[in-house]
Design goal:
The chain has 700 residues and is α/β, with parallel strands linked by helices. The protein binds 3'-phosphate-adenosine-5'-phosphate sulfate.
Length: 700
């Protein structure tokens, strides 16, 4: 007989679970499910004597896993109530994972013994698996409904962190199992592993850092081991986190490793440096409730809901299509083909969390998807909305998307050309190669347990009146290939030009035109920037009058001085205050733009990063026209209309732009106007000409 120990047995020995742990798990599970239970019923449910139960309850309370309180009411036999604490919920989840690991090791060992081989039990192919792997329920981080009500009350006293929109998306997927196997925001060790080699500390593949970034001030107020409440933007407690880690990340390294370059032209790198907090906190999360969504509720599913749906319909093979764009005919062709190739049902799984700044908003997109859905066979296609915050990380993002779709019960995943591409870098080159995402996915797909259906670029062949993959076309010289790029489509929409039927569906085009009228009917923002006394306000005023003379859209002037009087009267001129002032202007301008008006802003706005943030705010809704009023500091000082330069030179005004505070000259403004030797009317006219050339003002 072979005296060497089998690997299965060695694995089994690694997963020893003590009796105490077993009993503690049963107790915590019971209290989670039946918090009102009497001592007698708990004892009989978990199979211990009353005396033993008392000892267990005491030690669980000492460890902070449960609280014991006096029960109100007349029943003398039930004097105490036992409630699971957040720590208890986390411990229960940890023990449940260990039990599962132990059970699996037991099966491995049994399998090895029965078959007399060292062959590993592969759940998907094994007869002992009753439910197909992709359809069995997966772990969530939520506690039971009853416990959630209690934890919510308990969590109200905790220090709380108000989650950013991106963190809310991340938390939702952590809690509902979309980010399985993550149990919370990454610890420092896991983060380092993910950044360096796409793996958690235990070796599991995970390509994207899911971190809770916070301000230094908040981080300083937290002690390691402390529980914090995680609230949405209305203050609703969604979950709690036991903070196990706190560290200052090397963001430049994160940018290089995860996104491929420390270049702020990448939206996620820009977010990392300019929006995310300086400090990361990590630790296990206990889920209390899902974020509330008021829109398209029937179209939102958790991973377990989708798994149950697929189970119910008997869909054993499902191919997912990820998208952040409206669907046109090429996409439909691509998804049809993918489903055929994989012999699978189709899940259209659009992202409705956060996508690339400037994308079509998700309300419009979902209305478009719903219109297109009619064109798919209903019995083999469905659509569900994914509340993911994308990072546009190309190859890493594709692997991440695949893992998420696996959690949602899919067996196949479509990766097309330039998957989750962020566009071009600051040198104008693409961040990633068009098929890098497919290569990385292919490398890992076996380990991931979800198969890639890769696609080349689909184009329309006019002579054959059909879509074909560009690399499969052999007679390229004899045919006419038609294609409309995303940029071209945006141009046609912006200018109200025709969008042919071979390209898209009339229902989709109608929907897009409804939310994106031609540019000459959209709102926009003209943002003047320049030194104090450069002439911004004067030109802005002249421009306002000219635009009002033309009519058609309401015009609002947000001049530096006016804003400081009405919106920002409490602010000074520190960097922090200037940023706040400009962000307020940006907020108001973006609202005006969204509602179809014209906002003219004329602050100094000395910092490039803040101007960029405002541009992003506005460009979600319409054009942002940056006009640099390029009067030199010498000329402004010579004019010194308000006498401020003199005071600044004398040190009587501190932090004066151009004298004792910096001004970042705009690198690529839409327009630069020189005021020296040009009169105001002419300067304003230059702006009008620019607006005309951008299609923002049309001839009547
Ligand atoms: S900023 O940096 O964009 O927030 O500045 P802004 O809101 O445009 O306000 C600038 C006006 O405030 C006056 N002022 C100063 N400017 C710059 N630096 C310092 N320290 C300062 N103190 C007061 C100045 O009159 C500016 O008016 P404008 O319209 O630009 O001439």
């Amino acid at each position: 007989m072979n005296t060497l120990e089998s690997p299965a047995l060695t694995a089994l020995k690694r997963h020893i679970i003590t009796d105490e742990e077993g009993q503690l798990f049963r107790l915590l599970r019971h209290l989670d499910m039946a918090p009102q239970a009497s001592q007698r019923s708990i004892a009989s449910a978990i199979g211990v004597s009353l005396g033993r139960l008392n000892a267990q309850l005491r030690s669980a309370a000492e460890a902070g896993f449960i609280t014991i309180s006096e029960r109100e009411g007349p029943d003398r036999r039930q004097r105490f109530a036992y409630t699971l604490t957040m720590r208890g919920a986390t411990e229960k989840a940890r023990l449940a994972d260990r039990f599962l690991a132990r059970k699996f090791a037991e099966y491995q060992s049994l399998h090895a013994e029965l078959t007399g081989s060292g062959a590993r039990l592969i759940p998907l192919n094994d007869r002992t698996t009753f439910m197909q792997n992709n359809l069995a329920p997966i772990p969530e981080l939520f506690v039971s409904y009853d416990s959630a009500q209690k934890l919510k009350v308990e969590a109200a006293d905790l220090t709380s962190w108000d989650l950013s929109p991106r963190q809310i998306c991340d938390l939702e997927l952590l809690m509902n199992g979309g980010f399985n196997p993550l149990k919370g925001f990454l610890s420092e060790e896991d983060y380092n592993g993910v950044v360096d080699n796409m793996r958690l500390a235990n070796g599991t593949l995970w390509p994207m850092p899911i971190t809770l970034d916070v301000s230094e001030k908040f981080a300083d107020s937290i002690e390691i081991g402390q529980d914090i409440a995680l609230r949405d933007q209305e203050g609703v407690i969604l979950g709690t986190m036991t903070v196990t880690d706190r560290w200052t990340p090397d963001k430049a390294k994160e940018a290089e490793k995860v996104f491929g370059a420390d270049d702020s032209a990448h939206p996620a790198v820009n977010y990392l440096h300019n929006t995310a907090g300086k400090i990361y906190l990590g630790g296990p999360v206990t889920g209390i409730q899902q974020p509330v969504h008021y829109d398209f509720r029937a179209r939102r599913d958790t991973p377990n809901e989708l798994r149950a749906y697929f189970r119910k319909l008997g869909w054993r093979r499902v191919v997912a299509f990820q998208t952040r764009n409206p669907l046109h005919r090429a996409h439909q062709e691509l998804t049809f083909r993918a489903a055929k190739e994989a012999q699978a049902n189709l899940l259209i799984h659009p992202v409705v969390g956060m996508t690339k700044p400037g994308d079509v908003d998700h309300f419009t997109r979902v209305r478009c998807y719903e219109a297109v859905l009619d064109k798919y066979p209903g019995s083999t296609t469905t659509m569900s909305l994914l509340p993911l915050a994308m990072r546009m990380a190309g190859p890493r993002e594709a692997v991440w998307h695949g893992l998420i779709r696996k959690n949602y019960g899919c067996t196949h995943f479509i990766v097309g050309r330039d998957h989750a591409g962020p566009g071009s870098n600051s040198k104008g080159e693409d961040f990633y190669g068009p098929y890098d995402a497919q290569d990385l996915f292919r490398q890992h797909q076996e380990e991931m347990g979800i198969e890639m259906v890769d696609f080349k670029h689909m184009v329309y062949v006019q002579e054959r009146a059909q879509y074909e993959a560009i690399d499969e076309i052999e007679d390229k010289d004899q045919i006419t290939i038609l294609n409309i790029s995303g940029t071209e489509l945006r141009r046609r929409l912006a200018e109200g030009l025709e969008i042919p039927e071979w390209f898209s569906f009339p229902e989709v085009v109608k929907e897009l035109r409804r939310t994106k009228p031609p540019r000459s009917k959209q709102g926009f923002t003209v943002f003047f920037t320049g030194f104090s006394g450069s002439g911004k306000s004067t030109i802005a005023n002249a421009l306002m009058v000219k635009l009002m003379e033309m009519g058609g859209r309401p015009v609002t002037l947000l001049d530096g001085d006016i804003v400081r009087k009405n919106l920002s009267s409490e602010l000074g001129f520190s960097k922090e205050h200037r940023d706040l002032n400009i962000r307020r202007i940006g907020y108001v301008a973006s609202e005006i733009t969204k509602n179809g008006g014209i906002a003219i802003c004329a602050p100094i706005a000395p910092y490039a990063t803040t101007r960029r943030a405002v541009r992003e705010d506005v460009e979600q809704f319409g054009a942002f026209v940056e006009v640099h009023v390029a009067t030199t500091i010498e000329e402004c000082e010579r004019r010194d209309r308000k006498g401020l330069y003199k005071l600044a030179r004398e040190g009587k005004i501190k932090e004066f732009t151009g004298i004792s505070d910096p001004y970042d000259v705009p690198e690529k403004p839409e327009l630069r106007v020189e005021t020296e030797g040009t009169d105001v009317d002419n300067c304003a006219h230059q702006v009008i000409l620019k607006l005309e050339s951008m299609g923002l003002i049309a001839a009547h």
